[in-house]
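User: Please predict structures.

Assistant: First:
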Amino acid sequence: MKTVYSEKKYCSGCGACSYSCKLNAIQMKPDEEGFLYPIINPELCVQCGKCRKVCPFIKENTKNGIPKVYAAKNASDAERKSSSSGGIFTLLSDAVLESGGVVYGALFDSKMQVIHKCASSKEERNSLRGSKYIQSNLKHIFLQVQQDALEGKKILFTGTPCQIAGLKSFLGKEYSNLYLCDIVCHGVSSPQIFKDYIFYIEKKYQSKIEEISFRDKEQGWTHQKWKIKLQSGQILLDNTDLRIYKNLYYGHVIQRPSCHVCPYADIHRQGDITLGDFWGIENSLPDFKDELGINVVLVNTHKGTELFENESIKERLIYVKSDVKSCLQPQLQYPTEKSKKRERFWQDYQKSGFYFVAKKYGTLNMIGIFKQKIKRVLSKMKHSWK
């Protein structure tokens, strides 16, 4: 067996195949774009086929039915300010931690790489807050989750829908003590490009990055800015250099290939609960709109209902019922559309490096920005006609 997948676009990099191989014949290694893919060692592989059987992209995945939909916010203004949306992740994780459980999620490590970690305290959990637009490295997290589940610990695992699907497939059974929470995902970007971008910022400003936020809400939830805090004390707020990475991300040239054919980008979710921003709430629930942030919460399963209705959460939760039609946004209907410039971008990157593509694809004049906005509007209209 040469590869687990038939084409790269059919691999989300979840690692379920690697963790399932008892002979350690599969290693997750980065390709030329920086995304992790399973590499099979032919000397160790015995052609058992387990890796393909467990692959969530290959096998038929069980999807949950139509969810119960809520617009929700954390009653604490301080907790919402430190969150990307309405602060509901904090409430869910608090309920699990307060019962002696653990929480899994993504964070920036000391090298500004995004990795998945386990938190057993609220202080550790706080680093899991906030959106990260880079694909996280799961390392051996699935094995750790399995061990915690077998020991009977209460667990909240948060991640992208493909990571949730991979974990479910790897575990192969339902655990009553495991709660799965997926996010409304716009796609994950290249860890290699992000690494180059961090190097670019730190070299230009002659200072290490202390903190990075893709969703700073100082000017309000609907006017979020990208923000970088440097160890020198300087703060960069949505300036030209920050817009380089922002334009690459929203230009859809650095997303993982599987993001453009994602089978999980619909209203039928993988997790027990789905969290996202309630964009467009001013149209359906104008009185509930709040510039500190509002979550859309999709409760997809009985376990999701159990967690969402936990008594300790209800005391700190403000919510109203909504419906599928009101909460629909592109990422709950179809995958992120691939840019026609993607192949050319990576050819340019391999040939000329990050500085070249940063200038060519990441720096837009006002005409370019206007064209991007028009393109997004036309894309939404096209999908709404289908």
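Second:
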Amino acid sequence: MASTPLQRPPRGEGRMLAGVCAGLAEQYGFSTTLVRVVFVIFAITGASELAYLVLWVLMPNRR
């Protein structure tokens, strides 16, 4: 696990929507695709929408 704070990457560096999945994948060393797939699976069950929105608001952009 990295010692840097959890941050979303800048536009153009792996972001699709807000960069939440890319930021989580980068921070914890997972594949961005894997994190996105997990979010989609949880979205089907209704569990990830709120988590995604909360992380979008709380995670600062990396400068």
